[in-house]
Amino acid sequence: MNLPACPQCQSTLTYPDGDLLVCPECGHEWQAGEAQEAVEVASPWRDAVGNELKDGDTVTLIKDLKLKGSSMVLKVGTKARNIRRIEGDHDIDCKVDGVGAMQLKSAVVKKA
């Protein structure tokens, strides 16, 4: 059986589940009859309160974050400047004053 690749992650490991096709890598499900040429509209990155985030924005932390491998803690209200949106679990690349470059999740920030 020749199944189409996943429209989200392009994985070729898709399998049928009833009338749906399922991707085991990203968990995306779609109808088998949908046109594969359909271009998905890129969803905007959103902060914890629903504001759209764009490259170059400044954001503030909404909760304390312990830095992995360090005893340092980033406190609520710490600003991250000049963000850049990236793909992945940690979807914001930024610079934090006094700490340096790091990646954050958009769920723990709000637009300043």
TrEMBL record:
Name of a matching Pfam family: Zn_Ribbon_YjdM
Source organism superkingdom: Bacteria
Stretches assigned to the Protein YjdM N-terminal domain: 3-31
Domain Protein YjdM C-terminal: 46-112
Any coiled-coil regions, as ranges: none
UniProt family annotation: Belongs to the YjdM family.
Protein name in UniProt: Alkylphosphonate utilization protein
Biological classification of the source: Bacteria, Pseudomonadati, Pseudomonadota, Betaproteobacteria, Burkholderiales
